[in-house]
Amino acid sequence: MSIKVEFFSTPGCSNCDRTRESLKVLAQAFGEHMVTWRDINLLDELDYAVELGVLTPPSIAIDGELVFPSLPGAAKLREELARRLERKRT
């Protein structure tokens, strides 16, 4: 019953670097068995990023769906993860 969070960024993106770790820690606080985190270099996986609709980094997809085309605040990410986990439980 795990959900997958994918963080799309590019090398040299200072906004990506500043926020990646704090959002990753927030996601992992739900537990490794509940949320898996994957860092994706947009340039290395450009076809996949385009398929999801990622236009600019940083962006976040959850379970293969682009949920945050621009960087969310920690509270928004936490709410979305909690909502999705609750939905999977029922």
Write a structural description.
- By secondary structure, the protein is an alpha+beta fold.
- It has one domain: Glutaredoxin (3-Layer(aba) Sandwich).
- The protein contains three helices and four strands; from the N terminus they run E-H-E-H-E-E-H.
- Strands 2-1-3-4 form a four-stranded mixed beta sheet, sandwiched between helices.
- Strand 3 (59-62) and strand 4 (65-68) form a beta hairpin.
- Helix 1 (14-28) packs parallel to helix 3 (74-89).
- The radius of gyration is 12 Å and the shape is globular.
- The model has no long low-confidence stretch (mean pLDDT 93).
Topology summary:
Blueprint: E1 3-9, H1 14-28, E2 35-41, H2 46-52, E3 59-62, E4 65-68, H3 74-89
Parallel strand pairs: 1-2
Antiparallel strand pairs: 1-3, 3-4
Helix pairs in contact: 1-3
How much of the sequence lies in strands comes to: 15-25%
Q: Helices and strands: which structural class?
A: alpha+beta
Q: In CATH, what is the class? A: Alpha Beta
How many domains? The number is 1
Please outline what is shown here.
This protein has 90 residues and is α+β, with helices and mostly antiparallel strands. It has one domain (3-89): Glutaredoxin (3-Layer(aba) Sandwich).
